[in-house]
Amino acid sequence: MKIAFFGRSSVGVAVLRGLIKQNHEIVFLVICGSSPEVTNQEQEYRSIAQSLSIPCLHTNNIDCEAVHNLISQTGPDLGVSIFWLFMIPGTVMQKIPLGVINVHGGSLPKYRGNACANWAILNDEKYIGITCHFMKADALDAGPIIKQTRIPIDGMDVGQLTTRVNVASIALALDSVKIISSDLGNADIRRQDEDIAHYCYPRVPSDGYIDWTLPSCKILSLIRASTRPYPGAYTYFFHYRTNKLSKLVILKADICNTPYPSVSCVPGHIITLQNHTKGVYLSDNKCLIPTSILIDEIQEDFSHYFNTVRQRLGARAEDIAFSLYQQNIQF
Length: 331
Fold this sequence. Notes:
Blueprint: E1 2-7, H1 9-21, E2 25-31, H2 42-52, E3 56-58, H3 65-74, E4 78-82, H4 90-93, E5 100-104, E6 112-113, H5 116-122, E7 127-134, E8 145-152, H6 158-183, E9 199-200, H7 216-226, E10 233-238, E11 245-257, E12 270-272, E13 278-281, E14 286-295, E15 298-300, H8 302-305, H9 317-326
Parallel strand pairs: 1-2, 1-4, 2-3, 4-5, 6-9
Antiparallel strand pairs: 5-7, 7-8, 10-11, 11-14, 12-13, 13-14, 14-15
Helix pairs in contact: 1-6, 5-7
């Protein structure tokens, strides 16, 4: 088939190279800008385009004269979209006979939208779905499903899960193009059930703030869902000796039982465990053991840094405001 490619990322590069190996004719590439979690890999795309002697356009606005001209001049049979930043408009899709397909890291029609891997961890899902579907004009993650697969989450953090999703997405995209090019008439293409559609909205860095009164499973899920490549789950604390306000980012952690059947303690307090390491007391009489942390952007060892049981995590808003007031910091 003659294929127009819309997208970005290393996943898109791998899909593009796979399509070339399948002997499809790539007629042009359109790449868009980067986002905090996804780079556009522009140089790699331009290198591929140069090797194929095809046009490569960089724009966030796909509904433009340049793209319409490329479609008219090259006559693609199918469009392939990987990590495209925006919805594909009908004015573009209607010019491509077989439409445009998209690979999405969600169990469509559930988990449409953004940050699906993060939300799947936070929602304690057992699996994350990956879906290849025909795109619906001017709609987000809608349109008939070509093929789906799923990956067990099984305690993975969002970085590990994203890596697994990316690898599976490459295979799913290439398999779906094979289905379309060789046996589309007999393929099990199915409509999405709009009655069970579920949307995920973007997460922002402040969503990683740790509420120490939550159950241990919720706090651990927040840490797993917020770690790299995202900013991480975090809390503030005043150092008990210096009264200096610092930010603690927890990138990895484990949960264990406290050394005693019950403890008189406030959630967020540092306690000593039986092996003399330090942990954070949680509301359900569990203990969080951070294994990878940053304090004011500097990597530290948790037990070494917090070597006292006089320390508590989770500075209250009024404590922070009073500290800034004392330092004459205007806000």
